[in-house]
């Protein structure tokens, strides 16, 4: 597998630690961001293969859109959203706006690890 890049966005350090531990053995560079501005800057610089966003708040508040994030990258990355919200309207809204995966906390770290590895292996640039 060629060298891959993952960005994890969250304002909660504990959640970042959990998700980073789940994907850190994927042979990819993992960058963590705690603000939308930092994530946007990392997307411009890194052109990640996978972005994991641990909240729906940036989408609801209008700070972030999946389309905008994808446009910042050379090749459109996969975007996984992981959040506590389980209501159908939130899940459907995020998926309809273009997210590739929506998962809810508490999350199976093994499942997340396997999804990330599978994506990174099968989506070559």
How does this structure look, described?
The chain has 125 residues and is α/β, with parallel strands linked by helices. Helix content is 45%, strand content 21%. The chain is built from 6 helices and 5 strands, in the order βαβαβααβαβα. The protein has helices spanning 13-23, 36-46, 57-60, 66-72, 88-96, 109-122; strands at residues 4-9, 28-33, 50-53, 78-83, 101-104. A 5-stranded parallel beta sheet has the order 2-1-3-4-5, sandwiched between helices. α1 (13-23) packs across α6. It is globular.
Secondary structure blueprint with pairings:
Layout: E1 4-9, H1 13-23, E2 28-33, H2 36-46, E3 50-53, H3 57-60, H4 66-72, E4 78-83, H5 88-96, E5 101-104, H6 109-122
Parallel strand pairs: 1-2, 1-3, 3-4, 4-5
Major sheet characteristics: 5 strands, parallel
Provide the β-strand percentage band.
Answer: 15-25%
The overall average pLDDT, rounded, is 86
**In whole angstroms, how far apart are the ends?**
11 Å
**Sequence of secondary-structure elements:** EHEHEHHEHEH
- Count the DSSP helices: 6
């Amino acid at each position: 597998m060629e060298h891959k890049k993952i960005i994890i966005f969250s304002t909660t350090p504990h959640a970042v630690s959990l998700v980073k531990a789940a994907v850190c053995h994927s042979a990819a560079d993992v960058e963590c961001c705690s603000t939308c501005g930092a994530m946007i800057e990392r997307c411009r610089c890194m052109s990640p293969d996978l972005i994991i966003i641990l909240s729906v708040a940036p989408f609801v508040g209008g700070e972030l859109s999946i389309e905008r994030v994808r446009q910042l990258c050379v090749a459109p990355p996969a975007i996984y959203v992981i959040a506590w919200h389980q209501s159908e309207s939130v899940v459907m809204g995020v998926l309809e706006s273009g997210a590739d995966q929506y998962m809810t906390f508490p999350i199976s770290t093994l499942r997340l690890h396997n999804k990330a590895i599978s994506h990174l292996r099968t989506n070559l640039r």
